[in-house]
Specification:
This protein is 29% helix and 24% strand. By secondary structure, it is an alpha/beta fold. The strands form 3 sheets. A 9-stranded mixed sheet has the order 11-10-9-8-12-6-13-16-15, sandwiched between helices. Strands 2-1-3-4-5 form a 5-stranded mixed sheet, with helices on both faces. Helix 8 links the parallel strand 8 and strand 9. The two termini are 35 Å apart.
C-alpha cells in the first residue's frame, strides 16, 4: 500500500541525484504518532547518510518511531559508521524500506542487524521498481562491477543524425535537449569521438547548473590524438578531461595534453582503434557508476558492436532527412543479416510535447 511517508522519502532521494556518486541516492523519513519528526537525504559532500540526518533532526523523539527509507540501511563501516547500528541505538521500532541494498557489503546484512535487535523490518514492494530506477546506475555497478553505459542520440524519424553538408541547428527541440542535460547531470562520465569534437568544437559540459558530487568526466576517443590544443574542450579542462587513444599516437602530442592537465588513456584495441571495453574497466576501477555516450555514427556503431552499451536513449524529432549520404545513428559495417540484428528489450516510450518522443531500451547481451 502506498504511503505518504515513502512518497516523501523518494522525493527526498531525488534531491540527491548527481550529488551522491559513487554512493546511491537515498531518502529517509521518520514518523511517530502520525507526525513526521525527521527527514534526510544523502549527499556525498556532507557525508552523513539519509537516516542519520533524519535521526539528528528527530533527536530523542526517534525512540519507538518508524523509519521509511528508499534503500536498506548499511551494516558496514565506510566513510561513516554503520547506519543499522545507529538505528538500533536510537531505539527505532520499525523500518520500512523500498528495496534491499545490492552492495555485497550490505545485501541483507543491514536488515538482519535490525531484526536481531528486535526492530520490525518490512519491505515495500510497491515502491521497489521506482527506488531501483532512481539508483539504476549504482545497482548495475554493484551487480556487474561495471558502470552503466547509455548510448544517447537525437534522430530524425528516418533514423538520421547528420546531414551530408550543412549541420547547423538542432535536430530536436529545446525541451528535448533540456532532458538530455538532466541525464548528463545524473551521469559520472560522458564520451564522444574526435569527429564530433572537430565538427562541433563541443565542450560536453553539464549545463544544468546543479550541484554535483564530482565533475562530469569528459572523454574523447581519439586514436591518433588529432584533438586541437585550442579546442574548447581542451581549453576548458580542469582535471575533468580524458583522451582515449592508442600507442600509435604522437608522444609529443600526449605530453602537450598532459601539460594542460588532460588525462591521456592509452588503450589499444583491434585494428589500430581504441579499446572501449578497457575504458569501461578503467571507469569501474575509478568508481564511476555511469557513462553516457553522445557521439557520431562511427563511434556509436563501435560501442554497440563491442557490446559495451547497456541501454539506449534515442530522441526522435518529427523530421525526415532521407538520402543515402545522411548519416544513420549507427554506421560502420553494421550487421549483414537481419537475424544478427542487435536486440533491445524493456522498451519505454517517453512523450516530449508537442510532437517529439524518446525511446529508452536495454541492449540484450
Amino acid at each position: 500500500m502506498k504511503t505518504p511517508a515513502m512518497d516523501e522519502a523518494l522525493d527526498l532521494a531525488r534531491r540527491g541525484v548527481g550529488c551522491t556518486s559513487p554512493n546511491p541516492a537515498v531518502g529517509a523519513v521518520l514518523v511517530k504518532g502520525g507526525e513526521v519528526i525527521g527527514r534526510g537525504f544523502h549527499t556525498y559532500a556532507k557525508r552523513k547518510h539519509a537516516e542519520i540526518l533524519a535521526l539528528d533532526q528527530a533527536g530523542e523523539r526517534a525512540h519507538d518511531a518508524t523509519l521509511y527509507i528508499t534503500l536498506e540501511p548499511c551494516a558496514h563501516r565506510g566513510r561513516t559508521p554503520p547506519c543499522a547500528d545507529a538505528l538500533v541505538s536510537a531505539g527505532i521500532a520499525r523500518v520500512v524500506a523500498a528495496m534491499e541494498d545490492p552492495n555485497p557489503l550490505v545485501a541483507g546484512k543491514g536488515f538482519r542487524r535490525l531484526i536481531d535487535a528486535g526492530i520490525t523490518v518490512e519491505l515495500a514492494p510497491e515502491y521497489t521498481e521506482e527506488a531501483a530506477q532512481l539508483n539504476e546506475a549504482f545497482i548495475h555497478s554493484m551487480r556487474t562491477g561495471r558502470p552503466l553505459v547509455t548510448l544517447k542520440a537525437a534522430l530524425t524519424l528516418d533514423g538520421k543524425i547528420a546531414a551530408p553538408e550543412d549541420n547547423t541547428g538542432w535536430i530536436t527541440s529545446e525541451r528535448a535537449r533540456a532532458h538530455v542535460q538532466q541525464i548528463r547531470h545524473s551521469s559520472d562520465a560522458i564520451l564522444t569521438g574526435i569527429g564530433t569534437v572537430l565538427a562541433d568544437d563541443c565542450r560536453l559540459t553539464d549545463r544544468t547548473g546543479l550541484e554535483r558530487s564530482r565533475p562530469l568526466l569528459r572523454i574523447v576517443a581519439d586514436s591518433t590524438l588529432r584533438i586541437p590544443l585550442d579546442s574548447r574542450i581542451v581549453t576548458s579542462s580542469s582535471g575533468d578531461l580524458a583522451i582515449l587513444t592508442t600507442s600509435a599516437a604522437s608522444e609529443e602530442r600526449r605530453r602537450a595534453l598532459e601539460c594542460r592537465g588532460v588525462r591521456v588513456l592509452v588503450f589499444d584495441g583491434p585494428g589500430g582503434r581504441t579499446d572501449l571495453a578497457k575504458l569501461v574497466e578503467y571507469l569501474a576501477t575509478e568508481q564511476y557508476r555511469s557513462l553516457m555516450i553522445e557521439s557520431g555514427s562511427k563511434l556509436n556503431w563501435a560501442v554497440l558492436e563491442a557490446g559495451v552499451a547497456d541501454k539506449v536513449f534515442f530522441y526522435y524529432a518529427p523530421k525526415i532527412l532521407g538520402g543515402l549520404r545522411s548519416l544513420p545513428v549507427a554506421g560502420g559495417t553494421g550487421r549483414l543479416h537481419r537475424r544478427d540484428a542487435i536486440q533491445l528489450s524493456r522498451v519505454k516510450l517517453h512523450s516530449i510535447p508537442p510532437d517529439e518522443f524518446a525511446v529508452e531500451a536495454y541492449v540484450e547481451k
